[in-house]
Design brief:
The chain has 9 helices and 15 strands. By secondary structure, the chain is of the alpha+beta class.
Length: 394
């Protein structure tokens, strides 16, 4: 009987039946063949090719089991890294997504009998963090990629730099306070003593004036001479005239206060920009550079333009030279810094998605100065923008 035509109903029905997942008991891992029913599986077991595979496996069964175990471990961890990143997720969720692929390696051909045994083994080997809860086992991938480690070190360095800035600002405030107190006489606290009478018969008298300690009849003001009046008038005038030293001290105090207020304003703006930051930075129509070596030297260090952003962390890029299209993760790309005077797009922080003009680059601080050219910040000059927070526009 001849083979059915490609567009015949029987051929179409066979293709529909062969799609998707089928029963595991009719799958031969050695031959990697899926049978549709029990009769087909029986015929496959009696086939000569299957018998040859069994003979090869009987010679060294551990070699085949190790091969399938390595394949299962590599594919499972790759799915965990690409799909969930470093998030904590239930192991069944990852496994169900893994087995949805038709050509996956089955668990019964590996050295682990159950998914729980595999999860425990992964945690013991240090490939991922695992923990047991009443709802089951959870798994979290440990990213040891050099690029990820480098980014984490840069973040730690920035945090340390921020702490150093806070310490410097606190020291600066102390210096301003110390400068404001220079030249001022320290005020001595009044000394209070207990009232004691040495002689019980002696009368205690208080004089409200400053001339004598014993109370006496007060003199009328008409008895005061003209010299005394002139002296008192001169003292009052002298009290009213501010000295140049006090004026300069007040100016110093005002300038220090202004500097402190400016510093607090800068600190507040810095905190606002930090709160507006996100982990993802991909934006369409920007130029990026491919930094991963997993695709070979053909694409390493090549520039591309982002055509589409998917799930915030994945981008479809088109190479500038060859025109090839690739789907890459955010960790495999880096921003491109153009020459001064070119247009860039802000990718993170308070001014995210704003177009700007690159004014200059500070190579020591790995930052740049931008002039915003769109939105409500048009014309505003921003200094100290990190390299990873903007990129050249396509």
């Amino acid at each position: 009987m001849g083979k059915a035509d490609f567009l015949s109903p029987k051929a179409i029905g066979n293709r529909i039946k062969s799609k998707g997942l089928q029963k595991l008991r009719w799958y031969c891992q050695m031959c990697q063949k899926q049978c549709r029913d029990e009769n087909g599986f029986k015929c496959h077991c009696m086939a000569e090719s299957h018998q040859r595979q069994l003979l090869l496996a009987s010679e060294d069964p551990n070699q085949f089991m190790d091969y399938f175990s390595d394949e299962f471990k590599r594919d499972f961890l790759e799915l965990l890294r690409r799909r969930f990143g470093t998030k904590r997720v239930h192991n069944n969720i990852v496994y169900n997504e893994y087995i949805s692929h038709r050509e996956h390696v089955h668990m019964n051909s590996t050295q682990w009998e159950t998914l729980t045994d595999f999860t425990k083994w992964v945690g013991k080997e240090g490939l991922a963090k695992v923990d047991e809860t009443p709802k089951g086992w959870y798994i979290q991938y440990i990213d040891r990629d050099p690029e990820t480690i480098r980014r984490q070190e840069e973040l730690e360095r920035k945090k340390k730099q921020d702490l150093d800035d806070q310490e410097r600002s606190a020291k600066f405030i102390e210096d301003q306070v110390r400068r404001g107190l220079d030249g001022r006489e320290p005020e001595e606290a009044p000394l209070f003593t207990e009232l004691k009478r040495e002689n019980e018969e002696e009368k205690i008298a208080f004089n409200m004036g400053a001339s004598s300690s014993v109370a006496g009849p007060s003199k009328p003001s008409s008895l005061l001479g003209p010299s005394a009046l002139k002296a008192s008038a001169g003292a009052i005038a002298k009290r009213k005239e501010p000295s140049s030293a006090s004026e300069s001290r007040e100016k110093k105090k005002k300038s220090a206060l202004d500097e402190i207020m400016e510093m607090e304003e800068r600190k507040r703006k810095k905190q606002q920009s930090a709160s507006a930051r996100t982990e993802f930075w991909l934006q369409p129509n920007i130029v990026v550079k491919i930094v991963t070596k997993k695709l070979g030297e053909k694409y390493h260090k090549k520039k591309a333009v982002i055509q589409e952003v998917r799930d915030q962390y994945t981008a479809v890029v088109k190479l500038v030279i060859s025109g090839d299209k690739l789907k890459l993760d955010q960790s495999h790309l880096e921003t491109v810094i153009p020459a001064p005077g070119k247009r860039v797009l802000v990718l993170n922080g308070e001014y995210r998605a704003a177009e700007a003009l690159l004014e200059g680059i500070d190579e020591k601080k790995f930052s740049a100065t931008l002039t915003l050219d769109s939105g409500r910040w048009k014309g505003k000059r921003v200094e100290g923008v990190a390299y990873e927070d903007f990129s050249k526009m396509a």
